[in-house]
Amino acid sequence: LTLEPTEEIVTNEAQIEIYGDGEFTNLPDENSTEGFVNNGTFTAKGGSNLDFGSGQLENNGTFTVSEGGEVRAGEFDNDGSAIINGDLYGDLAWFATGYTGGEGTINGNAIGGGEGAPGNSAGVLTITGAYEQLDTGLLSIELAGTDPASVDRLAVGGQAMLAGSLRVMEIEGFTAAVGDSFTILTCGSRSGTFDSLLTECLDSGACLSLAYTDTSVVAAVTSQDPSSVEEEASDPDEGVENEDPPARLALRSRGFPGRSGSLVLDLPAGGAVDLAVFDPTGRRVATPATGRFPAGQHVLDWAGTDDAGNALAAGVYFVRAAARDGATATIRVVVAR
Q1: Would the CA dihedral through 213, 259, 243, 239 be positive or negative?
Q2: Lowest-confidence region among 11-15, 37-41, 58-62, 271-275
Q3: CA Rg, the chain, in Å?
Q4: What SS3 class is residue 232?
Q5: Are 290 and 319 contacting, i.e. CB atoms less than 8 angstroms apart?
Q6: Would you say 192 and 287 are in contact if contact means Cβ atoms under 8 Å apart?
Q7: 190 - beta bridge partners?
Q8: Model-level pTM?
Q9: Which residues, 6 or more positions from 237, have their beta carbon under 8 angstroms from its beta carbon?
Q10: What is the mean pLDDT of residues 251-257?
């Protein structure tokens, strides 16, 4: 199939399905089209290979690359719904405001300003290059079990530059429990963190915290929302050490972080808390925990490392707990080596 448009930008308002090899080039001057705009439904079926040349492929409708299908374009701009179960090739995949899902491969770099949802009910979406999630971006992760094959994951071959929001959901009747952990993102290197965790407590009441390393992001169930379980079934040892909520937000340390230390967080009410470590210059160097915690006392292990898992230099640091209601608590700790 060879499409030979006579205009620089061609728009689809209907339905196109590609089953074989195709080429979208050949303007009268033998250059590629400047762009193809899909406002309808476009599907590259399995076994198809469609080349848009160096032009821009813009999707405002529904765009699907089926398993075994390949699509090539200079730039892919998604403001609609794109499902990538095959291979998408290009210099840049720009997910501006739309929805992008599937368990295929984006061969190149990608920028996420809309919603990214790896997998088809738990699966892996791969980006071979770098990935930047903007402040407006949202990464949606589904959990169908504790096995890695049952967990959505965004696999980035290059650097992952994180910002924006993260949403985690249980599916297919799965119920997460305290102690469960899920690797939701892997990368060649990482900078930044998600600005917010929209689902700090899941439907089952399992409350999450995020752990960042230089090559991954892990969501761990650290506590259970007491309102989601019967009183007789609650376990005071599962992240909460006292039955009566503390009178105010407080933070203190136990032991010597860097050897066998921990941080003790007292919460008068359940909610989102960001626990951060700063050096004497005010630079944020570690995030021991971030997420939603129920009211009570929480003991959080911290080995005196930064977000990449590297040991912090010996010295004085400041640990700050910041709650969503604006309350804060700060302590001084000494990391000994």
Answers
A1: positive
A2: 11-15
A3: 24
A4: helix
A5: no
A6: no
A7: 160
A8: 0.64
A9: none
A10: 68
Per-residue pLDDT reduced to its tens digit, 95-150? 878 889 999 999 999 999 999 999 887 899 999 999 999 999 999 999 999 999 99
Q: What single-letter DSSP state applies at residue 295?
A: S
Give the tokens for residue 22: 């195709």
| Whether residue 85 has pLDDT greater than 80 | yes
Which residues fall within 8 angstroms of residue 53, CB to CB, at 6 or more apart? 23, 24, 25, 32, 33, 72, 73, 74
With contact defined as beta carbons under 8 Å apart, do 92 and 108 qualify?
Answer: yes
Residue 220 backbone zone (phi > 0: left; psi -120 to 50: alpha; other: beta):
beta
Read off φ and ψ for residue 8, nearest 5 degrees. Answer: -75, -30
Whole-angstrom Cα distance, residue 336 to residue 314? 5
Q: Answer positive or negative: Cα dihedral of 93, 94, 95, 98.
A: negative
Q: In Å, how far from its chain's centre is CA 28?
A: 44
- How far apart CA 299 and CA 301 sit, in angstroms, is 7
The answer to whether residues 95 and 73 touch, using CB atoms and an 8 Å cutoff, is no
**Residue 258: what pLDDT?**
47
Q: What is the pLDDT of residue 158?
A: 97
Which structure tokens are listed for 65?
A: 């690359």
**79 half-sphere exposure, CB direction, 13 A CA radius:** 7
Longest dimension (CA), the chain: 78
Q: How far apart are CA 176 and CA 173, in angstroms?
A: 10
